Amino acid sequence: MRPARAAMPDRRAAFLLGHDAEFWAEVLLRLKGYAIRARRFRAAGAEIDLVARRGTTLVFVEVKARADLDAALAAVSAAKLRRIGRAARAFLAREPRLPETIRCDAILVAPWRLPRHIEAIGELPLD
Question: Is the distance from CB of 103 to CB of 124 less than 8 angstroms?
Answer without folding.
Answer: yes
